[in-house]
Amino acid sequence: MTLVVGLGNIGKEYENTRHNVGFMLADLLLFDGGFTDVSSAKFKGELFKKGSQLIVKPTTFMNASGLCVKSINDFYKPDHIIVVHDDLDIPFGSVRFKNGGSSGGHNGIKSIDSLIGNDYDRVRIGIGRTKGGVISYVLGEFTQEEKVVLKEILAHCKEAVLRLIQTNDIKQISSDFTRKPADFGL
Question: Do the annotations mark residue 75 as ligand-binding?
Fold first, then answer.
């Protein structure tokens, strides 16, 4: 069983923010249909199931995402976890993949690591940095120009996640799907 975790914050005010790219990708994966809503208060997230695939959008807010992941991990015991999240440390237009590693200061990843460890695959969608405050930047919306490119990035990441679900080979996915801003015309 594979669990795909799209990280983000709940609420309309966060819907289109940089910090919610994980939610955006989860929605894109769910759009294909066939998933059953198996959400429950005990899972602390919007959880959907299709065959041996689970997709969740935690409802705990970013900084407590680990509570959701741990509850699902304890109940379903997936053998493969994929976490999709924004990454300040790579430029907008970059997409990277890895298993484990440091949280890089990402509070959602820190929360998950503290409760289940870091032996899971990560899809890191670059949002870049700004000279201003980090919180206002990650909770800010993408520019109109960025939104156009973001559609391409999310479609690319969707294909990568679907392949990763099939192969469970993060090294091959990283080789085939890692992208730089120039690959998206930036």
Answer: no
Query: Is the CB of residue 10 less than 8 Å from the CB of residue 61?
Result: yes
* CA 53/CA 3 separation, integer angstroms: 6
Q: Is 8 helix (H, G, I), strand (E, B) or coil?
A: coil
> Is 142 annotated as ligand-binding?
no
Q: How many CA atoms lie within 13 A of 86 on its CB side?
A: 27
Which pTM was predicted?
0.96
* φ and ψ at residue 8, rounded to 5 degrees: 180, -175
Active site residue 19: yes
At residue 176, φ and ψ (nearest 5 deg) are: -85, -30
| Of the options 1.10.730.10, 1.20.1070.10, 3.40.640.10, 3.40.50.1470, the CATH number for the domain spanning 2-177 | 3.40.50.1470
In this predicted structure, the answer to whether residue 132 has a pLDDT above a threshold of 80 is no
| Lookup result for tokens 């069983």 | 1
Consult the annotation and say whether 120 binds a ligand. no
Check pLDDT > 90 for residue 186.
no
Q: Are 100 and 70 in contact (CB under 8 A)?
A: no
Q: Is 86 exposed, middle or buried (0-12, 13-18, 19+ CB in 10 A)?
A: buried
Give the whole-angstrom CA distance, residue 7 versus residue 67: 12
Catalytic residue among 19, 80, 85, 106: 19
Flag whether 63 is marked binding: yes
